[in-house]
Amino acid sequence: MRGPAFVIFLNGVYGVGKSAALEHIGDQLADRGMPFSLMDVDWFHRSWPVAEDDPDNVALEARNIASVWETYQTAGPRQLIMSGVITSQEALARYERATQLRVRPIRLTASFDVVRARLRARYSSSQSSVLEWHMERLEGLEAELNAACVDEAALDTTHRSAQEVACRVLKHFGMSHHAL
User: Fold this and answer.
1) Which of 173, 176, 171, 107 has the alpha carbon at shortest distance from 145?
2) Is the CB of residue 169 less than 8 Å from the CB of residue 10?
3) What's the chain's Rg over C-alpha atoms?
4) Dihedral sign, CA of 80, 85, 88, 94?
5) Beta bridge partners of 53
6) Taking the CA of residue 117 as centre, how many other CA atoms within 13 Å lie in the half-sphere pointing to its CB?
């Protein structure tokens, strides 16, 4: 395999199924013997306290992604698949600089009822403040994603399993089982 020409980026609000689909994409690529690396960008900015000059940890996140991607590549060429939230052209450009690749976001969507149910299932009763924050942010984040216009395609996950979402994502990027 030559080095990847682009990054597959699963984009969408919290609870839409990005992380679950990311795992299934990895499973499917591994089953086919296709080299890959997965990154859930949430884990690259979860650090506190934040620097005064980086209140959202976006610069820290970009440095972490760049460093981990460089390390992954020492094992040989591989397809990079990421999941997260891209709400602006600026954020898209930041991910492209960090990976030094074109980032191709595909938007995962689901009904707000389904997303809320998934979020409720994700957090325990001791995490009620975190759940509340996600619930309050949901509609505003959806509006930001809509306004950003960065996604090349959209896929509704409301009635689809994570495995089916993964299959459809890979098919969109020409990596379906038949294309390999």
Assistant:
1) 107
2) yes
3) 16
4) negative
5) none
6) 6
